[in-house]
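Example (one chain per record):
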Amino acid sequence: MALLEFTDRGIYCSRADVYIDPWRPVKRALITHGHADHSRWGNEAYLCTTSAAPVIRHRLGEVNIQTVNYGSTTTINGVKFSFHPAGHIIGSAQIRVEYGGEIWVASGDYKTEDDGISEAFAPVRCHHFITESTFGLPVYRWRPQEEIMGEINDWWRENQSAGKTSILTTYALGKAQRLLRGLDTSIGTIYTHGAVENTNEVIRRQGIDLPDTVRVTREIDKKAYPGNLVLTTPGSIGQPWIKKFTGAVVGSASGWMTLRGARRRRGADRGFVLSDHADWSGLLAAIEATGAENVYVTHGYTAIFSKYLRSLGLNAVELETEYEGEDVAEEDKLAEKEAES
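Predicted structure:
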């Protein structure tokens, strides 16, 4: 029997009787990070990194969470577990599992570019590597973050000169804070959707520095917005909430902006290619760095990516899971719920 198995509840280690990022309620869950498709309500006990716990607790309520620091080892029935930086969002981790000389790594979601706010990705040597492939096609190749943030700031300045409000859509958790770190606050005021600001407050309480932001409320005169920037969720576009901003220009920061038509489908006037997932080159570099001969592709372009890995001589298989990659559906549902609370 393999050290890790893929079951209808999630990735399972039978010897330790624990699951990694389960999508059905289980007794003990090891969680890679706080996004809705990886951290779900209903488990009896959770184990995650110290820096991931505040957001997970904020989103799931008073659940039973234990925390570990990166690199420390937790042994359960002889199986050694340790968490290592995944570079995806603050607190995100790859989970290393070792028993009897066999080593697996479940990477969750990851990116290899250091974004300056998340703990930077650290490759972990192993025999078996579980990887995403959200952007597992050669067309997805990211430009440096600094260049994209420069484009966003220039776009904001142009809109300000035209007397327009800049509305930028993004995930409430992860990319919103990454964008805040890169926005030029000398241009104007940054306003935030309630879901974004709720997450900001949790992260600020962790001692992580973010620029000043102003929560969008009914009390703010709509005349205050032109020339400034509003950071919001993709799901707010087309909703009554957005109507308070007159003369607005909408931008979207997502890896999907690589594709023609994605901007239109997301109701955006301008697209910026920025993702919290590894691009084609990043995926391949990460896999090579592990030294793993066995690769399990869990979500994204699984068939195409696993086929390419096999052409490189790796034992690669595609697996069906309930992870979603850079899909806004579940995150938007959670964001709207947060904003209402």
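Caption: The chain is about 25% helix and 25% strand.
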